[in-house]
Amino acid sequence: MARTGRRPGNQDTREAILAAARKAFAERGFDGASIRAIATSAGVDPALVHHYFGAKDQLFVETMQLPVNPADFMPKVIEGGLDGAGERLMRTFLGVWDSPAGASLAALVRSALQHDWSARMLREFLLTQILRRAMKEFGVDPAEAPQRSALVASQMIGLAMVRYIVKLEPVASMPADELVLAIAPNIQRYLVEPLD
Fold first, then answer.
1. Is 131 exposed, middle or buried (0-12, 13-18, 19+ CB in 10 A)?
2. How far is CA 94 from CA 80, 101, 157, in A?
3. What DSSP assignment string belongs to 55-94?
4. Residue 175 or 5, more confident
5. What are 143-147's contacts with CB under 8 Å, separation 24+?
6. What is the structure's pLDDT at 2?
7. What local confidence, expressed as pLDDT, does residue 58 receive?
8. What is residue 192's predicted lDDT score, i.e. its pLDDT?
9. Distance of CA 22 to CAs 64, 78, 104, 109, Å?
10. Domain with CATH 1.10.10.60 in the chain
11. What Å distances lie between residue 65 and 20, 87, 104, CA to CA?
């Protein structure tokens, strides 16, 4: 008689969960995808999803195959509140991109430029794992948070494109401290100054 019940914990199970999660996040976005629906699609118990990946945030990061986890650097950005947030965000951003993880991030951005799925996943990642979390922790008015988030993202993604993808000089080879001095005030302005 064939065994019934949940699938045993192995690499195939983990991969089935990741495949179901990628599909769910791509189709419904981070907010619309649920652990229960992902588990059902993968043919496993929701407890097994939590066993392998923990919370939905961790599962999402895993589906992106990112070389870094926002949980490792977001506390540094958020500590101290809005005061100096633009500088902390810039220093953290450049630190991550200038590390060995930068090559994988550049590949992700290049992929997002060519594939709708990658663009949607990158958008969901920036919104749910970094920007929304930062705006909430900074105490930004929820009515203004989407616009402020998009403005901050425009600076960060623009810098990533110019420095790491297109490699436009002199920005491509500028020391990080110089870039922080040049760009952090814009980020700070997007976070705190009146939008009108």
1. buried
2. 19, 11, 12
3. SHHHHHHHHHT-SS-HHHHHHHHHTTTTTTHHHHHHHHHH
4. 175
5. 144/195, 147/195
6. 47
7. 82
8. 93
9. 8, 28, 18, 17
10. 11-64
11. 15, 27, 9
Domain 11-64: give its CATH superfamily: Homeodomain-like (1.10.10.60)
Which residue spans of the chain are classified as CATH 1.10.357.10? 70-192
Q: Please state, in angstroms and rounded to a whole number, the distance separating the CA atoms of residues 159 and 164.
A: 8
What is the per-residue pLDDT for 1? 46
The DSSP secondary-structure symbol of 30 reads: H
Q: What pLDDT, in 10s, does the model give residues 150-190?
A: 999 999 989 999 999 999 999 999 999 999 999 999 999 99
Reply yes or no on whether the pLDDT at 6 is more than 70. no
Choosing among 3.90.1570.10, 1.20.1740.10, 1.10.357.10, 3.40.190.10, the CATH entry for 70-192 is 1.10.357.10
* CA-closest candidate to residue 69, choices 153, 125, 7, 145: 125
DSSP state of 171: G
- For residues 43 and 103, the answer to whether their CB atoms sit within 8 Å is no
| Cβ 121 vs Cβ 66: under 8 Å | no
